[in-house]
Amino acid sequence: MTKHQQILTFIENLPIGSKVSVRFIAKELDVSEGTAYRAIKEAENKGLVRSIPKVGTLRIEGVKERQIEDLTLNEVSQIVEAIIICGEEKLTECPNKFLIAAMELKDLERYLEEGSLCIVGNRTDAQILALKKNVPLLITGGKEPLPEVVELAKESNTLIMVSPYDTFVVTTMINRALFDRLIDKEILLVEDIMVKDVKYLKEDDTVGDWYKLSQQTGHSRFPVVDHEHNVVGIVTAVDVAGADQEVKISEVMNRNPFTVERDDSVTHTSRKMVWEGWEITAVVENGKLIGLVSLQDVLEALQQIQKQPQFGETVDNLVLSGFRYADDPEHLTIKGEITQFMANEFGSASCGNLVTLMNTAGYIALRKKYRLDAITENFNFFQFHPVPVGTEISIRAKLLLVTKKHCNIEIDVYNEQKDLLVKGIMSARMGDKR
Length: 434
Prior knowledge:
The chain is of the alpha/beta class and 434 residues long. It folds into 4 domains: 1-64, Winged helix-like DNA-binding domain superfamily/Winged helix DNA-binding domain (Arc Repressor Mutant, subunit A), CATH 1.10.10; 73-184, HprK N-terminal domain-like (Udp-n-acetylmuramoylalanyl-d-glutamate--2,6- Diaminopimelate Ligase, Chain: A, domain 1), CATH 3.40.1390.20; 186-311, CBS-domain, CATH 3.10.580; 321-433, Thiol Ester Dehydrase, Chain A (Roll). Helices cover 35% and strands 25% of the residues. The protein has helices at residues 3-12, 22-29, 33-45, 73-79, 105-111, 124-132, 147-155, 167-184, 190-193, 207-217, 237-240, 249-252, 266-276, 295-305, 315-320, 351-370, and strands at 19-20, 49-52, 56-59, 83-86, 97-100, 116-120, 137-139, 160-162, 201-202, 222-225, 231-235, 259-261, 280-285, 288-294, 324-325, 332-337, 372-383, 392-402, 406-414, 420-433. A 6-stranded antiparallel sheet has the order 15-16-18-19-20-17, with helices on one face. It has a 5-stranded mixed sheet with strand order 4-8-7-6-5. Strand 2 and strand 3 form a beta hairpin. It is globular. The two termini are 37 Å apart. The model is unreliable at 63-68 and 307-314 (pLDDT under 50).
């Protein structure tokens, strides 16, 4: 269990009404205040705690989380303008799936399960079968069910509602309502995951000050601010390597830092950081430093972002969403699972998706070590074995040759048994240092 999960479990086990603070969590569980803050923020999103002005953050009675895609049966009835025949007490329930009864009874029976909603026309046999499975009915076409159907529903305490519209129109109306809900869904923002207690350096500080701050915090990357607290750069261990300790930070820092604002989406931030190799990004308001987000923060947030309909509108976002950095001291390595989205008609990862993953790994490796941009000119792809859906793979990028104008990168794909599945050689034209 990670520290983040430990904090969430600790909060969940607190008595209702207990005060929860960053300092309290950090002291009790021996974690950094930044880690404590992020966990408390997630606990608030999960409904475990609530921030009350002038009171503080309190542990509250949790409510079962309801997915944004869920519609209650009452909401469905309103959407399709249905009349309730019986089972009104079931209107608060949320169906876990919608089933259109447009098949033979023997086939329909396999799909009917408790918790679903059966959308059916004037098929008495299908209506009776659904009720025997304790599945509520949405009858289309405006025709009321036969008395024996209503009697069976009352005996099993099952809902029946009748819509005046045909099956196609009803399903279209429900689908539209779900789509509208997804569009209105709240997007995860940078301010939801950023660390507010930021350790930073001033442009007049020296390399020696960097070493002191690095020893105190255990970190190697810091934003740099001027006298008015405006972000003017980012400094890392690579920047200070070999520099005299009396040299000013302003002389070695990267003067073109990647910055975001508190209301930027995590989707955009994560994609930018992964693709361009940024380990940290400063959060600014009118140019002034107000927070910090690390690459680890956004990669962890990807799990939440995947639930957003705004995420995954491009192929590369969908492919990369489930991948993460792996601990490899020698080479840049990312790990993830081959999903159904990446599959071809044979049930294994398509060549296009594998090339996207491998090319990205090579690009990130170049950015991490040299902070260089590159444009892929040639990619040689050799697949030795198919990569089935569900396979956990590791993609390792090794820099073979890096010159001022060109680079060659070897990229290998392994499964969990360390078998080499795919090999690639990427040639790229170099860009400017950032």
